[in-house]
Amino acid sequence: MDENSLIEFAQQGDLDAFNRLILLYQETAFNLAARLMNDPAAADDAVQEAFISAYKHLRSFRGGSFRAWVLRIVTNACYDEMRRRKRRPTVPLEPLSQDDEEIESPAWLADPGESPEEAAVRHELGRAIQDCLDRLPVEFRTVVVMIDIEGLDYEEAASAIHKPLGTIKSRVSRARQRLQDCLKGFRELLPASLRFEEELAG
Question: For labeling, which of 39, 85, 94, 197 is most exposed (least CB within 10 Å)?
Answer without folding.
Answer: 94
